[in-house]
Hints:
single chain; Aldehyde Dehydrogenase, Chain A, domain 1; 21% strand; alpha/beta
Amino acid sequence: xxxPKIFQMLIDGAFCDAEGGAVIDSVNxxxxxxxxxxxxxxxxxxxxxVRAADIAGRAGPWASMTPSARGKCxxxxxxxxxxxxxxxxxxxxxxSGKMLKETRWQATYIAEYFHFFAGCADKIAGETLPxxxxxxxxxxxxxxxxxxxxxxxxxxxxxxxxxxxxxxLAAGNTIVLKASEQAAAPMLEFAKLFAQAGFPPGVVNxxxxxxxxxxxxxxxxxxxxxxxxxxxxxxxxxxxxxxxENFAPVSLELGGKSPFLVFEDAxxxxxxxxVMAGIFGASGQSCVAGSRLYLQDSIADEFLARLxxxxxxxxxxxPMEDDTQMGPLCTAGQIAHIKTEVAxxxxxxxxxxxxxxxxxxxxxxxxxxxxxxxxxxxxxxVDTELFGPVLSVLRFKTEAEALAMANDSRHGxxxxxxxxxxxxxxxxxxxxRAGIVWVNTYRVISPIAAFGGVGGSGYxxxxxxxxxYDYTRAKxxxxxxxxxxxxxxxxxx
Length: 493
């Protein structure tokens, strides 16, 4: 067996190990073998990274760099990412089990996010205010918030890093990004591109480590001015508690249990492909996975039969192979969680139409495409995120019933609606409780469009031009244009 590959963190422009050499073994989900070791950052490592970012933001060349120059760095970063998409994709596939054809494509397309935010860098503008007092010229200017702490999970990490790094850097901030303790290697490899793109030392720092102490030390650090977190609700509660130490504003992108509504007038071929992409793409390991399928009664039997047939035909195998359609899950914990919930659903009366177990002849972290018909909305599996290829199917009679069932969830990230009735589509897009609504399509992203949820799926928005303002703060400037001496100093003007 080959020796594990060693990765290092990026702190203040230099690659380094963790204090004391502490490491985390990274397992290839397809083989079950340790293939890499990544640093396990200590509190001291976190402090070094944050202080480097703080100095770089206040006193280094980055602090005096023009917005246009910052944009050029971001654009170059996007170019480098696209050039390295094959190599980065292979590392991410090895580390997470995600399909190479997806990780490679993501690395190429995510370059567009950096290109987009590169163009935003010199478009941030303040306002001139028509103030209600004479002889005063009042305006606002927007300035960077300071050091941004970004935390990303192992899935879709280049995308989730880009929607944080892009606006933060375009606005002139510095950043410390913590990669997940699961599958951190791609982010540490990505770190090699920043110097090539022209970013000065300390502007971008990428570390890896456990939630305790690394995550806690980062999100509670007194020099952190903003926290951008993507992950699970339990970790999010810790982050919010930690932010009480520095009063840093927090944006949260959490999990989902996205409803997928198929009406009788829908293009069923298109809806079928949308459902397949929504729940079995990336082996269901997506925060926007369409894991709750609601079918109108009149087409439910036909649609379900076709869906089961296609699910049974999915090719599981080596994620590096182009003809593989579904690879392994990233962690053993996911497998255990899914097994428990599938068994619980069956005990509650759920009908297992296909899957429900692990395939023969593959590794321990593979799970079959699974479809469970649920007779009741209140079954535990219906509103429990599994982060795997498990679809809950329910039936509805009317539009009002479908809407009520879709909104009966603590989550609110994404949703899908398939119908040819444009009036119905517009009604539902307004009424459905979700941050993202896809109509007659699913699992589509763009740097131009905001991404984020409501309720238990978090708050704040990433991507889109508006995200720029989340990484800046307004400063109001009052200028007296009169030569007349100020009046009574004891009376507010």
